[in-house]
Protein 1
Amino acid sequence: MNKHLHKLHKLAAILGICMMGMGTAACGALPPAALPSPTRLQTDAPPEPLATIHPDITPEVDDDPYLYPTGASGNWVPVDYDPSTTHLEAYVSFGLSNVTVNWVSPDGEALYWKGTYDRPREDGDWSWTSQADVAQTRQGPMACQDATKDFFYDAEAHTLTFEAEIDGIPQTVTMVRP
């Protein structure tokens, strides 16, 4: 029995060496560029503005989002926010350059508006005419069917204002950050 155990150990050692050789060959076949390196790691942090990295260079592209204030971007709720009632909530996306307004109730939510967001070019009050994302608003049973909607961001009061038809009555909706 000892003799058989010795043969099994030898066989296992030979198989182990063969498998290690195959693993090394496979690993060695990877080009160095495919291996991760600290310089290739990406983070969620936004890149520094070009003006910070190279203050003597003016960017050629006028759409660099890091050169402009964020303005109205972020989440918005009505001034008289009560989560137990049906109300409108908005999200202005700086990165995607769109605005979404949803009807929100304790039972769920439904789209009211989805359209473009024109980023501000300087600090202060900002208004824009949002162009509807018709593919989205056409599908929403409670969505506004207008082609455009005007939004106004008041930098001093920190409010977002727009017109909405609620129960068939046009109303001015004023929102604040939650």
Protein 2
Amino acid sequence: MGFTRLPIPAGLVPPMCFCGDPCKMEMSDEEETFRRRYWICANWAFDPPEKAVMKGGLEPPPLCDFEEWIDAEVAEKDREWFNEMRDWNKEEGGGAKEGAHQRRET
């Protein structure tokens, strides 16, 4: 699952993962779950730094696979936006996810 790490809003208490540590909040960038927020183990090295990959290991190593959705479904405006970007990107000859990231960042 692709993700974007998010700050935890005031008043929202993160659950404890299987490791016993508070989870971190992230947001999906996959089509089926686009922009849905979820909790994930804070110790999970989901997107390790390039240096760690080059060494042949993950630092820190994944400790558990705790994931829990915060948002029940993809918001209609996000679904429409993703579909527009996918269609736009098809016209431009690229992939939907790449186009979505490029347009969202500008």
Protein 3
Amino acid sequence: MPSTDKKLNESKEEVDGLIGAILNEIAAYLKDGYTLWDGKELLQLAAALNHAKSLALLDWENSLHQKDGSYYDYFEKKRQQYEVLERMLPYVSRITVQLEQGVRIGDFVLELSAHLRTVNQIQYFHESLQSIREYHKQLPMPENRNEFENRASLFAVANELEIFINLIK
């Protein structure tokens, strides 16, 4: 069914675009400490994923189960990435001061957003995130409670990013 494949590929583009937009907003907040983002992309992503998964299931059923279900698997991975993004946002929103560590993670998120579909760069992203973590370990201890809480939120964001990267495969 070529028309179904076309619709599924369009859904892939839409979902990837929305995930990229969400990551760009997260990066902007981490780097600049301010954004007027209303979060509508999260709602759009949820709707797009539901539509795409039902379309993928229909495509698989119409092929009399002869296809491997790769579209469905793809959208299931994207659903899991969506859940990671949902978990990450409260940590991001708790960051109240501009920290150099936040800028580093923001740059990383921006780069990740630009290469969402590049499966062969997963190792690079793991190494880059590990390098950021190692750098953060070398920094002096926080000077006050506020800095401690902000760094803890950044640490949680880094943990969620690691899970997100593992889901790119």
Protein 4
Amino acid sequence: MGSRNHAVRSTFPAGTLLAPYSVHRKRLNLFLSLQRKRYITCTEYTHFYGGKKAEIPQSSFRRLPFDHCSLSLQPFEYPVCTPEGIVFDLLNIVPWLKKFGTNPITGEVGVL
């Protein structure tokens, strides 16, 4: 241990006081943290994270136009809107409510 201190002291000019070990350790940790890479390589991406995924086949999903009933999927004549913002045609929702008594989209009982 004595020779290690002697080797360290010989690198500094004469009369220089050495900082405690903890200060040197903090500086070393700071230096090492700055040296760490902040990115992943192409090899890491492909092997560890799966790389580019195969194209997912697109379904034939199409968003319902705003002027269509959410129950019959047809353009409505007499629109009725629920508190959640779901729009139904009055001619389609009344028979549904009489038969099932629920909201066909959310399943809540007696809401409309």
